[in-house]
Amino acid sequence: MKWEENVRRAVPYIPGEQPQKEGVIKLNTNENPYPPAPEVERKIAALETDKMRLYPAFPDQSDLAAALAAYYHIDKEQIFIGVGSDDVLSMAFLTFFQSGKPILFPDITYSFYDVWADLYRIPYETRALDEHFLIRPEDYRQPNGGVIFPNPNAPTGILLGLDKVEEILAANRDVVVIVDEAYVDFGGVSALPLIDRYDNLLVVQTFSKSRAMAGMRIGYAMGNPRLIQYLNDVKYSVNSYTMNYAALELGVEAVRNEAYFRECCDRIIKTRGRAEEELTRLGFTFPKSCSNFIFASHKRVPAQVIFDRLKERDIYVRHWNKERIGNYLRITIGTDEQMEALYAALEQICREAAPL
Question: Residue 179 forms beta bridges with which residues?
Answer without folding.
Answer: 149, 203
